[in-house]
Structure formats: structure tokens, C-alpha cells
Write a structure and sequence with these properties.
The chain has about 170 residues and is α+β, with helices and mostly antiparallel strands. The protein has helices at about 10-20, 25-30, 70-75; strands spanning about 1-5, 30-35, 50-55, 60, 80-90, 110-115, 120-125, 130-135, 140-145, 150, 160-165. Strands 1, 2, 3, 4, 5, 6, 9 and 11 form an 8-stranded antiparallel beta sheet that branches. A 3-stranded antiparallel beta sheet has the order 8-7-10, with no helix packed on it. A hairpin with a 2-residue loop joins strand 3 (about 50-55) and strand 4. It is globular. The two termini are about 15 Å apart.
Amino acid sequence: MEIINNFLDERDFTPIENTFTNSPGLSDIAWFYSTKVGTNTDVDNLNHSYFIHTLYDHHASRSDLLNVIQPLLKKLKVKSLLRAKVNLFPRTEQVYKFDAHKDYGFEANAAILYLNTCNGGTFLEDKENPFTQSVRNRLLKFKTNETHQSTSCTNRKFRMLINVNYF
């Protein structure tokens, strides 16, 4: 696990941030609703949901916005992309911890770039400091087969991040 603050230069981060978090961009993006956060089955809980915008998956681009994150992919030195997506977790009344999961059952690289600062974050199992708070332009690196959990937030309208799995 590695945490890097101010991962991208502002000139590279700001266009990414503006594309995904600012209006009108936020409302122009095709967000897909899911009640499966960290699990393969629907969970009957009002707080257990989020929105996804898939950029790349199953060996193909899934969005015209994939090019927006090229500075991130370049700095990560991505040789082969497995998946890239933007996650949007709506605000909840209390911080809700979603199900523990692994991105993949094999070892590859995982990176989370937090797009905004809030009191939500990511928990990694078996770490000395298991919680990484969502902080604008902070990167969390770990392995795809490490168990982790996402959370909602209470102090912003949403928590947003880019999740990249790669070799």
C-alpha cells in the first residue's frame, strides 16, 4: 500500500476534476446506478448504492471520457489496462461502510485517485493504518487481490474517485 498526496500536477488534475465533479460536466455524464457495492448481489439497504461511469472494461473503451484520464494512466505507467471507472457515492446521514471485496482474484495493480475531499475513504484489511481518507488529488495504490472497503460520506454532496486496475 502506498499513499501519495498531490499525485498529479494541478495542470493535469484540474481537467480531470472539472470533467467529473463540476456542473455541467457532472450532469452530462452517463452514470449507472448500482446496489452492488463490493458484492455481486443486490443488498436490501437504502444506503448500499452508488453510481458508476465505466471508462474501460473487458478489453475495450466504454466511454468517450477515457482520454480525460490519460495523464493519470501515464503517471501510473500503465502497460495494460484491466478496468478504469469513476465511482460516485451519494452523501448519507452517517458514514456507511460497504462490503469488503477484492477487485480481482489475481495480483495486479490497483490505484484510487480521489477527486474530492470528504470524510469518506477506503479501508484496506491487514494494514497498520487501514483507513485512507478521501482527499482531493490523493492516490492510494494497492494490489487488486487485497481486500478493501469503500465508504460513503456525510460532509459533502458526494464522494468521487477514479478506480484503475492495471499491469
